Amino acid sequence: MSSTVSDLQSAVPDIRIGLMAPPPNVVMEVEFPRYLPDSVSLHTTRVPRSTPAVTRESLLEMTTNVESAARCIAMVEPQLIAFGCTSASFINGIGWDQDIARRISAASGLPAITTTTAIVEGLRAVGAKRISLVTPYVDEVNQAEIDFLNASGFEVIDLITFNLRQSGEIARVPSEVMRERVLANAEKARKGDAVFISCTNFRTLDQIDRLEAALEKPVVTSNQSTIWLIKKAAGVHSICETGGLLLKEK
Questions:
Q1: For domain 5-116+224-243, is the CATH number 3.40.50.12500?
Q2: Which of 162, 210, 214 is nearest to 187 (CA)?
Q3: Would you say 78 and 55 are in contact if contact means Cβ atoms under 8 Å apart?
Q4: pLDDT tens digits, 202-216
Q5: pTM for this structure?
Q6: Measured at the alpha carbon of residue 246, what is the angle toward residues 244 and 248, in degrees to the nearest 5?
Q7: How far is the C-alpha of 172 from the C-alpha of 107, rounded, in Å?
Q8: Identical fold at 5-116+224-243 and 118-221?
Q9: 89-96 long-range CB contacts below 8 Å, 24 or more apart?
Q10: CA atoms lying within 13 Å on the CB side of residue 102
Q11: What does the UniProt keyword field contain (predicted)?
């Protein structure tokens, strides 16, 4: 049975989201659609950098290209643009995330958010002040994140790091391995208000509910909080059945 023009038009999503991703990221485009309703479509462009290594130098290099990437993704006429790199949006200190969002908006003429902004707002939404931090990063990036979180009003009480330099290595960590590493540190994690798991190329979303149940604490992750803020900023009111306390909130 053939579809009519009206049938096809009714199947077009109401809201388009433009996603600006790091070149090596392979996780966001898999995880995000699972937690967005059919009324929202996701459209991605890459923000160039010359190496898959996650270092201060490579992250700052990538942020020099946000304007050109913003103008590119603006061509799909999204209602919102999300800059989906955690480390690139905190690497230059407090306010850097807001600066990137302003630059994207200026280049595209559209509202913009960043993952780091989403993390800060998400942690505040679950009432977290003292957090256990989990990252895949090397030391220089970890320290920049700790400094950013502390300057944002949080206290990082503990750090679990996989100490991975290459983005591909990060994406290949099974989410079950991440979960077990966090649970091995459960005693310290329970002393904080929440656990925060950083990096949009780190597989996390399918383990959040299990971690929250085991730790009896909210768990906030880069991808989860970015999805949450996308929905909030775009006026999407769907509630997720999984994905942790933050995504389940009304």
A1: yes
A2: 214
A3: no
A4: 999 999 999 999 999
A5: 0.93
A6: 70
A7: 34
A8: yes
A9: 89/114, 89/115, 89/116, 89/117, 90/116, 90/144, 90/145, 90/148, 91/56, 91/59, 91/60, 91/63, 91/141, 91/144, 92/60, 92/63, 93/144, 93/147, 93/148, 93/151, 94/148, 94/151, 94/152, 96/148
A10: 5
A11: Isomerase
Q: What is the pLDDT of residues 71-130, one digit of tens each?
A: 999 999 999 999 999 999 999 999 999 999 999 999 999 999 999 999 999 999 999 999
- Beta strand 194-197 with 130-135: parallel, antiparallel or unpaired? parallel
CATH 3.40.50.2300 for domain 118-221: no
Q: What is the domain partition of the chain in residue ranges? A: 5-116+224-243, 118-221
